From TrEMBL:
One Gene Ontology term, aspect cellular component: NatB complex
Protein name, per record: NatB N-acetyltransferase complex catalytic subunit Nat3
Top-level taxon of origin: Eukaryota
Domain named N-acetyltransferase: residues: 49-206
Any Gene Ontology biological process: regulation of actin cytoskeleton organization
InterPro entries: Acyl_CoA_acyltransferase (IPR016181), GNAT_dom (IPR000182), NatB_acetyltransferase_subunit (IPR051646)
Gene3D superfamilies: 3.40.630.30
Pfam family, one: Acetyltransf_1
Family annotation (SUPFAM superfamilies): Acyl-CoA N-acyltransferases (Nat)
Amino acid sequence: MPFNAVSDITRSIAPHYIPFRPPRARVRSLSLALVLASQFSATKTSSMSDTRRFKATDLFEFNNINLDSLTETFNISFYLSYMSRWPNLCVMVNEDRQTPDHPSPMGYIMGKSEGKDKDWHTHVTAITVAPSCRQLGIARKLMDYLERAGDADKAYFVDLFVRPSNLLAVNMYKRLGYSVYRRVLGYYSNPHGPDEDSFDMRKALSRDVNQQSIRKNGEQFTCKPEDTMF
Ligand SMILES: CC(C)(COP(=O)(O)OP(=O)(O)OC[C@H]1O[C@@H](n2cnc3c(N)ncnc32)[C@H](O)[C@@H]1OP(=O)(O)O)[C@@H](O)C(=O)NCCC(=O)NCCS
């Protein structure tokens, strides 16, 4: 089943505009909606999937995605704060069964914007796809979406954390143009054993003309978890 690119992202962004966001952010969201409209109208094929903003009620439906050892499940306030602070960076893909009351979640991405000056960037907090929906290009589309959102937001780069042992994901990110920026020692705490390091992977966006946000041989650079706070 081919992944059908985001079809109603503009409908989902504009009408659900969060009133307390500052005017500058509103303009960013609307311009992003226009960027996305042109992108996704070009790739729309049949109506086999429906991509829209992540909603609070998705938390009742996403167990088929989150019941996976490599997918973090956070507390409810974590998801709600993302949905309210970065609504345009939290996207859910549902199987389109023509029954909107009973969506079948296929995958989602959650991101945020943070940092100052040259560190202003888009961060991928979570990306996951239901086991039954993998290798259909969903993650690639979601990552592409977030990168476009970062470009529209004038971010210098996109970054993410991934376990070095999650080779599938590390290789996927490399294939998508990401490289290791540094190894974060003991980033993933483990109450039953040794903590696990993380790769901090980055991809420079178009604003970073000189590619200063990335570097070669990033695996050789280490830092502590507290050094990754922006
Ligand atoms: C990692 C994950 C998000 C990939 O999602 P996906 O929708 O299956 O990925 P896509 O179909 O978009 O594939 C993107 C690229 O990754 C590669 N890839 C994905 N799954 C692969 C697999 N099982 N074997 C080899 N390559 C694979 C593909 O080659 C593809 O590149 P290509 O299109 O150029 O061939 C998914 O496996 C997942 O949810 N894993 C558990 C959660 C997780 O690890 N998240 C990342 C945490 S940082």
